[in-house]
Amino acid sequence: MHNRGMGKYDVIVIGAGAAGLMCAGTAAQCGKSVLLLDHAEKVGKKILISGGGRSNFTNRFTTAANYLSQNPHFCKSALSRFSAADFITMVEEAGIAYHERNHGQLFCDDSAKQIVELLMQPCREFGVKIQLNTIISNIQKNEIFELQTNRGVFQADALVVATGGLSIPKMGATPFGLKLAEQFGLKIVPPVAGLAPFTFTGKEKEELQELAGISLGVSVRCRGKVFREAMLFTHRGLSGPAILQISSYWKPGDELEIDLLPDQEITSLLKLKRLSRPLAQLSTVLAELLPKRLVQLLASGHINDDRMQQLSDKQIEHLAYQLHHWRLKPNGTEGYRTAEVTVGGVDTNELSSKTMECRKIPGLYFIGEVMDVTGHLGGFNFQWAWSSGYTAGLAV
Length: 396
Ligand code: FDA
Description:
Layout: E1 8-14, H1 18-29, E2 34-37, H2 45-49, E3 56-59, E4 67-68, H3 76-81, H4 84-93, E5 98-100, E6 105-108, H5 113-125, E7 129-131, E8 136-141, E9 145-149, E10 152-161, H6 176-183, E11 188-194, E12 198-199, H7 202-209, E13 215-222, E14 225-233, E15 237-239, H8 241-247, E16 256-259, H9 266-276, H10 282-286, H11 292-302, H12 313-324, E17 326-328, E18 332-333, E19 341-346, E20 364-366, E21 374-375, H13 380-395
Parallel strand pairs: 1-2, 1-10, 2-7, 10-20
Antiparallel strand pairs: 3-6, 4-21, 5-6, 8-9, 9-10, 11-19, 12-15, 12-18, 13-14, 13-16, 14-15, 16-17
Helix pairs in contact: 1-5, 1-13, 9-12
Keywords: FAD, Flavoprotein
InterPro entries: BaiN-like, BaiN-like_dom_sf, FAD/NAD-bd_sf, RsdA/BaiN/AoA(So)-like_dom, RsdA/BaiN/AoA(So)_Rossmann
Cofactor: FAD
């Protein structure tokens, strides 16, 4: 029973981000008294900056294959209980105008603020108590959970941890949820930065800097995963959607294999050019297929810039291989400073996929990015926040 005087609630949710707001609103609609705590000064900060201020709030083609986790099946139950279609229905019923970009990514036409408002509406209507600027100093579980904070002591039968990942500490990301999991003896899959640009050192760094600003469609391969999207050369190394996607799979020491001309059968094309334009330089022909500065870099040491007629079949085949299999070895990623997500987190083996509740600690739940479920780029991380938040909201 709920007794506000003593700061006692049915449910306390820690973290008023995407998953926490979804969970608090859902639990309150089910009749629970809910306290939502956050150390930040406002709710949903990452939602507000997401998608360049328009929030890529879900992806029409969401499936379990869009998530990394040590248990790739874990996310299936929550994703089917509350699917992308369910969130789209919420967005449509609220009259929020949206549009679709590449690969099923959905964005607000106007502002990400509308998504925060959409989540806040049931919280307001069903009486979720939201307490911001709250620093939690201690959590204990006896019969019930007891939280000590700078705003007093709060108690609840159920505690939901929705404190997110470690990316962008400047915006308030903390390892709070992981530390709490450790306190309760739960296993953690070691966290690393995901959806992050790559950095390079030495000669590779110098060469890539020359190309800063160039963007081209490539396919990037690492650890058996392939992404066919745009790649961007930056002053620090490589970025762009293809690179961010593969970075979640990359491990230190791995090479990237980049196909610079993924849709072209370059061997026969160059053989035809050898017949039709025998006197042209190879670099002139390549500059019709690839950005000029990139061709200049290749011609400055990576390939022999002969006339087309001088190229043997073998040389053409070797060149085609190089263009389809450009190998680069990053020295790291830019890390949590710019990463969009955290790969790893609370081990899903500790949790029920039907409720997000800990098997060992009844009443303790983890949802959203704090757990070891990480989406690809394209709206999948918010969808996981909605699906896991809703699932736990029904269960608490
Ligand atoms: P989220 O980070 O949303 O919320 C965690 C909350 O916990 C925060 O309010 C925080 O203040 C609070 N908290 C943390 N530590 C605490 C503590 N010690 N005490 C109290 N409160 C604490 N995804 C996507 O699908 N589409 C997109 O367009 C984008 N865009 C995007 C842009 C940028 C720049 C970033 C960094 C990330 C994205 N993402 C994204 C990823 C997405 O933002 C992320 O996966 C979800 O917000 C995760 O939801 P959670 O609720 O788990 O954490």
